[in-house]
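User: For a benchmark we're assembling, each entry needs the component sequences followed by a predicted structure for the full assembly. Here are entry 17's components. Please fill in the structure.
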Amino acid sequence: MIDNKFLITKLEEEHALTEEEFVTLLTEITEEDQEYLRVRAQTIARKCFGNKIYTRGLIEFTNYCKNDCYYCGIRRSNSEVIRYRLTDEEILNCCKTGYDLGFRTFVLQGGEDGSYSDEDITRLIKRIKSLYPDCAITLSIGEKSYESYRMYYEAGADRYLLRHETANEKHYSKLHPEKMSLQNRKRCLKDLKEIGFQVGAGFMVGSPYQTIEHIAADLLFLKAITPQMIGIGPFIPHHQTPFADQKQGKLELTLTLISILRLMFTSALIPATTALGTIDPKGRELGILAGANVLMPNLSPTTVRKQYELYDNKICTGDEAAECRFCLDRKMKNIGYELCVDRGDYKLMC
Ligand code: 5AD
Ligand code: FES
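Assistant: Structure for entry 17:
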């Protein structure tokens, strides 16, 4: 009999396990262990953040992408996607709507769209910052040079999301074309941190060819780079990608990993992702109850929502920003939490 309670306690006290221990915990975990782990993680999140949930308004401003990641619905080779770019004015309109609804962080997310110069991005950052000086800007626009990242930071961007996707080289090459490399992804994360961004990394749970050993390596990789934000969500197949027939990631495993991450990174900003809400109608609530503390509803105009489909059946593509805000307000109240109006910067809370 392996004593998983012992491993969970060790994880809570030391915020880390060895690779072998992670593999054991993830392989042998029982329902009872899972519940014990969940309660420990939720207790820590409550201690650090009370019943407050941070929100980020997500603006998906371009679905053009030069990359061809095998899992992603907006990959370059998907010729069925209707491509769009929002104008600066449209983006600023999203910010206005978002601000009035209580968002104090805007996440500018897009494919790796070569038509934007660094000047275009910095101009946009400066315009948003001058109109909303009390808001944080998070960028999620992929791999760039050190110099580009530095320009964005100097223009006023505060945070950067760039999931590492998998910390295993071989696995990385099964998810991405040869042109992309884990090495460059790591270089980007290192540069971002060095420049001063609050950095977000993460991976998909149950991505094709992923093993428990890969997940253990992901957890150790995260430990080594200690990001301020960690985004994980289940892999969900998109019907117009090479992974159309692959299996979806599991709800239970995703929740277990959220709890493990909370024990490893007590103060981290961990979202209950849209992907989690897509595979289960209660997914985001369960994510919060497993130790997550962030929600990232969509602020993009409903006219383009459907076109930013990274995976099939993505939720909220028909809902106005206000509807999502109110819906999440309600969902959180139902489980004893509330959305707060706050930038929600990373702080060492506990
Ligand atoms: N299923 C789940 N998540 C996905 N992402 C991309 N495609 C999918 C998919 N099919 C995630 C990636 C990326 C983030 C923006 O969305 O991890 O980094
Ligand atoms: Fe978008 Fe519920 S969060 S409708």
